[in-house]
Structures are given as structure tokens and as C-alpha cells.
Amino acid sequence: MKIAIVVQRYGADINGGAELHARYIAEHLVRHAQVEVLTTCASDYITWKNVLPAGVQTVNGVSVRRFPVVRERDPKEFGQHSERVFTQPHAFRDELAWLEAEGPTSPELISYIRGNESAYDFFIFFSFRYYHSFYGVRAVPHKAILVPTAERDGALGLSMFGPIFRGVRALMYNSFEERALIQAASGNRDVPSVVVGVGSEIPEQTSPARFRQKFGIRDRFAIYVGRIDENKGCAELFDYFQRYSRMLAEGMHLVLIGNPIIPIPTHQKIKHLGFVNDQDKFDAMAAAELLIMPSYFESLSMVALEAWALGKPVLANGRCDVLRGQCIRSNGGLYYDGFEEFIETLRAIDMNRTLATTLGRNGRDYFRRHYAWPVVERKYVEMLEKLAPQSSAHAMEELPGWFARRRNDRPAADEVVAQLPTGPALQTPVVATETTAPRPTAPVRKHEAGIANQAVSVRPPVTTASLERPLPAPRVSTSNPPGEPAPISDTSTNGRQVRPDRPPGGPRQQRPGQPSDRRGAPRGPQRQRRRPNGRPPRRSGSR
């Protein structure tokens, strides 16, 4: 079997989320099939400038065939097209113009796919929103497998992508939330699919001491790894962390790894290391107390999976459905919605070693069950074997004609996405026997019982989908997790938030005579539910 991996950029030193994802899959599928990567000559996603030579080369044992990009991206032009299709009623030709402006535009790559269709058994396309996927899938729909890497942003609301989701042979989703989001947007539930995600190259050994000595860091710290950008929630993270540091002088420090797009505050507890090699990155994560993931938009957080693989808890932005769902299913992290919850969840992990250790252990078990490479490879191989003897049951819908493309009948994409259901895709927690695992301490409520291996108590959130009734506190066993989570729906009782109880011997035990609330628990600090101020920034770029 010969497989083509089709992705916008590719290289050993290209570490974008979808691009790294594609490289990992290519390097692991080569053990099971003949693999060739089809990509562009671009090395950066801002301009798509041709930097790498066209032609065939080998990268980490995988054949890579590159094709030139015919035009670099003009950020001003792309921004104008984005404003048009995301915020205003528009025509189909406006969406095509947006796609051309986004890039990377490589007609030669599409021509090669169309002309060499018979040379490959399947084409696996990464990232639905780019030129290569839209036109490449249409060139070979009956051999196209799509890894969408979709996030809750305006691109998902463009009408041009619905036929792509409905016309491919199969989809390999990164998360249950991504699957539910795309199915709600496109109605493609009958297309074969599996939630698979991706593994990571976790080193067998890490050295926290080596990292601390090399970078001169002695204090306890939380870590952020990734592009330092407003779209990744970093501006909000800086604001929250500085306020946290003013309120808790003994609180931990913050270490940043990644290239900055926005200014980094000058603060005695914030240390930026820039871009580091993999050894330093994993040593840093092993030395950290926790990973903070403040992003609003993710289809799968690889760095969160890496933190769990190393046994570290994760604190995530609860406004990202995927991150929230991962924390719930893993029982390996907490999440926050606003500053009050940020400070309480961070303080809970910072001040309670038992809680941090338990969350990290749960996360490691979750990674091993679902994201170890043998698991990921098996899901890909099983899908390829399932599709091989079958013919496609779905015909690709034709593009609109000349007149239809010019009708101003397409809704603003942001409005379409706003109508889609929100929240993590979960099953109702199953009542089982209680374990001996300790319960988290501190007055927080953001740890949920989805697929878990320890007892927690559940209370419902207020979501845009529904107002839900509380369930009895579940007792979740350490047995294998229940089956796949159900898709999101407007009447779902999923997405329940958790208020962890305090473990025996925790730091806030009730003293004799101490007043209690109506549930009999010691009163904690006053907590107020505060909605976030304004919507998270809409992403006008390709990341």
C-alpha cells in the first residue's frame, strides 16, 4: 500500500501544530506502508515564501516531494477577505477569493495529485482550511482521507467546506469535540471516521536538575510552551498571572518557551527562554509543577498530551471546548473561566502536592491508554484496511456554477459558527465503586468526572446549550473507561463542572466550631461566577 501525506509545510525543523502532526504520522506509518509526503516549498506560514527547493528529498527516512507556491500571502489583502466572509453576507466566489488569499496557492501540487492518482492507494490531507486540502480532496475524493485539525473559528462556518467534509472517504479527528463540531456544521455523520489524535516523541529520560542548572532556575514554576500570541490566550495569561503574583507573594513563577508574537511583560516572576531544543523542552516540562494552556482555539493540544505523558497536571482555558474536554476525560487537569477561577485553580495545584500528583498520574494513564504510538498507529492502519476493499459511498458535490457563485446568499461565517453547540463532548458519568485516590483540595469547581479513575463530585455548569440539573456525585472506578463520548447536542447533559472536595488531612480541614455551609463543608473564600469580559479575539490569520 502506498500512502501520500499532503500538508501545507513539511520539514524536520518545522514545528507548527498540524505540520508536526503530519510529520509524526508520516514517520510512524512508514512502518506499515510506503509513504511519500506531498507539500510546498514554503517554510513559514506568514508569507508562504518559497524557501525550500522543489523536487524530491528525504527527511528522517521519509520521501518528501515539494512544489512551488505561486504567490506569497499579502496580510492586508487576506485581512480584507477575512473581514468580508467572516462578518458579512457574501457570495461563494468571495470564499474562493479568501482561500486564494490565505494560501499556500500551489496549482502544480494539485496537478500532480490529479495526474498521479493511480500511483497512490490513499491521500491523507492535513488541515481542512488550506488550498491544498480543498482542491486536493476534490481532485481525488474517493481516495481522500482528511485530518481536519479544525478549531472553533470562522473558517468552519464557510459554506465551501461542507461538501469537503461530506465527500471524503474518511476523517481522522483529533478530539471528540472536533468531531461533534464538524458533524454539527456539515451533517457528515455517515462518513467513516475515528477519533485518533496523535502521539508524541517522549524521551525515555528527562533531567529537571540539568534544566534548572542550565537556565539558572531554582523556584517552583508553571510552564507555557508554544507560540506566544494573543490568539493563544497569552495576553490574558500575562494579565492573570501578574494579578495572581500580586495577591500571592509566595506563589510560583512562570516560564515561557516559544517565539513571541506579542510583547512579554517585564516581571520578576516571568522568565522567557525563547525557542529551545526538544531535550531542553522536555527537561523544562519535567521540572515544572504544571503546564498552563491558555489557548481559546485548539483541535488537539499536543503539548498538553506531552505534559500528561510526563506525569504533570494541566491548567487549561475552559473557554476552549477541546481543552476542557481533555481535562475532563483524563481527570488530569483543571480548567478556568475568568480570573477568579484561574487564581483558585492555580493555587489549588500550587499549594496541594497530593492534588498535583494525582492529576499528573491520571494524565499519564490517559496518555498511555489513548495516545501511545501503538494505539495511534493501530487506528490509522485499521481505517486504511477497512477502506481498501470498499468503494466510496459518497459523491463529491459539484462547485457552484458561474451565476451561483455570484449570488450574495452566503451567511457571515462567524454567525454560522456562533450557532453551533458548545461544550465538551462527554458521556454521563457512570456510578461505580469508590477508589482510595485522594480528593483535590481548595475551593475550586473545575475538575470534572468524564472518563476518570478517581472519585469526584459533580455540579453542572451554565452553558449556552442548556441549563442542567446536578447529578448525584459519582464514584468512578479504576476500570477501563466507558465507551466513546456522545456528540454534543443542545439538550445534552454533558459538560458538567466539578467542585473537588478536600482530601482527609488536606490543608483546609474544618476545625471544631468552624462554621459550615449547607452541605457541611467548611466555608472557603467568597467565590463569584464572572463571565469573561468580551469574546476571545477572532483569528484573522491561519493559526
What would you say this structure looks like, in words?
With about 550 residues, this protein is α/β, with parallel strands linked by helices. The protein has 17 helices and 16 strands. It has a domain at about 1-75 and about 100-200 and about 375-415: Rossmann fold (3-Layer(aba) Sandwich), CATH 3.40.50. It starts with a strand and ends in a 45-residue tail after the last strand. The strands form three sheets. Strands 3-4-2-1-5-6-7-8 form an eight-stranded mixed sheet, with helices on both faces. Strands 11-10-9-12-13-14 form a six-stranded parallel sheet, with helices on both faces.
Write the layout of secondary structure elements.
Blueprint: E1 2-6, H1 17-29, E2 34-40, E3 55-59, E4 62-67, H2 75-87, H3 92-102, H4 107-115, E5 122-126, H5 131-139, E6 144-147, H6 162-167, E7 170-173, H7 176-186, E8 193-195, H8 208-215, E9 221-225, H9 234-247, E10 253-257, E11 270-272, H10 278-287, E12 290-293, H11 302-309, E13 314-317, H12 321-330, E14 333-336, H13 339-351, H14 353-370, H15 373-387, H16 402-406, H17 413-418, E15 458-459, E16 497-498
Parallel strand pairs: 1-2, 1-5, 2-4, 5-6, 6-7, 7-8, 9-10, 9-12, 10-11, 12-13, 13-14
Antiparallel strand pairs: 3-4, 15-16
